[in-house]
Amino acid sequence: MNIAIYPGSFDPITKGHLDVLKSGSEIFDKVIIAVATNSEKSGFLPVKVRVELIKKAVKEMGLRNVEVDSFTGLTIDYAKQKDAEVLLRGLRAVSDFEYEMQLSQTNSALCDNIKTVFMITKPEYNFISSSTVKEIYENNGDISKFVPKAVDEYLKNKL
Asked: Mind listing the pLDDT tens digit for each residue in 9-37?
């Protein structure tokens, strides 16, 4: 079974993230979308909430080979724990590539058995970022076009 880890903060998850996840689920036997926990950052949404919202979005999409989890520490160590062969990373634009390449090379230096696979989002999602969604939300804008229904409803109820 080939297992891919799709790590990130997903704070909040966007339709762009889900586009990458869907593509990955079509290629790999199992994809674990893993919410990274940073003890030094509180985040926009608590990790527990992010995990639950992602689970709802995954269920709504009907992705049966996707698991949702959270972790602390190095992504590469988490991937080893899960017997993953691949780290799945999304690219929106050329500007993402340099950062992602550095990450990939660092992970490769730590463990050359785990490869990084880059997936490019569909054009309609390549401008969406969690930061942009947060800014729109914090200024009372409509985020429904950019996030899954579960996130939109959660944030509407939070107001």
From this structure: 999 999 999 999 999 999 999 999 999 99
